[in-house]
Specification:
The protein has about 375 residues and is of the alpha/beta class. The protein is built from twelve helices and eight strands. It folds into two domains: about 325 residues, Rossmann fold (3-Layer(aba) Sandwich); about 40 residues, no CATH class. Strands 1-7-8-4-3-2 form a six-stranded parallel β-sheet, with helices on both faces. The chain starts with 11 loop residues before the first strand and ends in a 12-residue tail after the last helix.
């Protein structure tokens, strides 16, 4: 028998915005002006929130924090493609999507300060809370998608993970299951090129992370992750495909982590400063601003006004969160996890409350359990 070349689906790369903000008119997805302005203003809030949270962590007012600078286009461009009835499954740096979906910003301050109220999903939102163990949330997304189809819901699940998590067994098993059952799910791999201190080149020999989709029988596409329009275009098409029964898609959004992996990390030990400067010049907010300027939607005065508003929004959120910390009840950690708490959780709660009362602890912000 002759050796035959098997036909495999090619991987496309999508880019719409140039680094100077010019757009390919044939690919422009036509986002309405009002939505473009809201996306840009949300990105400004996310950027200012990032800066404020880093300062709070250095002051000892919150715990470990994972900055999202450079990820704004990858996150907001993808979440913009969702309906309110769709599901969002984030990992660590997708809180700009939370802001877009209507989370109070003070919840995020509480989350990083270690208060259980910060992980409680606001009523009416189909979002999952942050899941810290790498890759462990991806099977959750598959379960949600399977349940949505079982219930015959017209909903799609959007699941994020990083380039490091793309090599984890949980992620591989989840993508395989989603492919086998053709689930209404869009995987967004935000490839910031660093799995903490391990570069992309040391993680896999695959030419692109989008190629992983080929093994599981569904489309993979690579996009410029600093190009909000390209991310939206790819996600819009993937969401439409999933919603009409076409199954999952893997989108690799190529960007760069411009700040430390977390406040417990020192990237100067392994990152080349020249490489960081190169990617800083490509960062997504600057590119989006240039595009909006070309469309006549923003000028220096309007940008300054929106930036000041973003600062004020973040400042107010921190003040509200710190006021809530003073009255926080730590037994809220037992709430909002199960619809009907199982017996063992009820027992744990009673034991915790009994121990708290025996020690004379009110359960407030300054009285952590032993």
């Amino acid at each position: 028998m002759p050796r035959l070349r098997l036909p495999l689906e090619p991987i496309q790369r999508v880019a719409v915005l140039g680094e100077d903000g010019t757009v390919d008119p044939g690919l422009d997805p036509g986002i309405p002006s009002d939505d473009l302005e809201r996306l840009y203003r949300t990105a400004l809030v996310a950027r200012r929130f990032d800066e404020r949270m880093l300062r709070l962590q250095r002051q000892g007012r919150i715990g470990t924090y994972l900055p999202a600078r450079g990820h704004e286009a990858a996150v907001l461009g993808s979440v913009y493609a969702l309906r309110p009835t769709d599901w969002l499954v984030p990992v660590w740096r997708e809180w700009p999507a939370y802001i877009w979906r209507g989370w109070p910003l003070e919840h995020l301050v509480l989350l990083y300060a270690g208060y259980p109220e910060g992980t409680r999903v606001p009523d009416g939102l189909r979002d999952l809370p942050v899941c810290v163990p790498m890759g462990s949330h991806v099977p959750h997304a598959v379960g949600v998608a399977y349940a949505a189809r079982y219930r015959r819901e017209d909903s799609v699940v959007l699941c994020y993970f990083g380039d490091g998590a793309s090599s984890h067994g949980d992620t591989q098993e989840a993508m395989n299951f989603a492919g086998v059952f053709g689930l209404p799910l869009v995987f967004v791999c935000v490839n910031n090129q660093w799995a903490i201190s391990i570069p992309r080149t040391r993680q896999t020999r695959a030419r692109t992370l989008a190629h992983r989709a080929v093994a599981y029988g569904f489309p993979g596409v690579q996009v410029d992750g600093n190009d909000l329009l390209a991310v939206y275009l790819a996600t819009r098409d993937a969401v439409a495909r999933a919603r009409t029964g076409g199954g999952p898609t893997l989108i690799e959004a190529v960007t760069y982590r411009l700040l430390p992996h977390s406040t417990a990390d020192d990237p100067t030990k392994y990152q080349d400063p020249a490489e960081v400067r190169l990617w800083e010049a490509r960062e997504p907010l600057l590119r989006l601003r240039r595009y909006l300027e070309a469309r006549g939607l923003v000028d220096e005065a309007r940008h300054t006004s929106w930036d000041q508003e973003a600062e004020a929004v973040v400042r107010e959120a921190v003040e509200q969160a710190e006021a809530r910390m003073a009255e926080a009840q730590l037994d809220a950690m037992f709430d909002a996890t199960y619809g009907t708490p199982p017996t063992e959780v009820l027992v744990q709660r009673r034991e915790w409350q009994a121990d708290r009362d025996a020690r004379g602890r009110p359960g407030g912000a300054g009285s952590p359990p032993p």
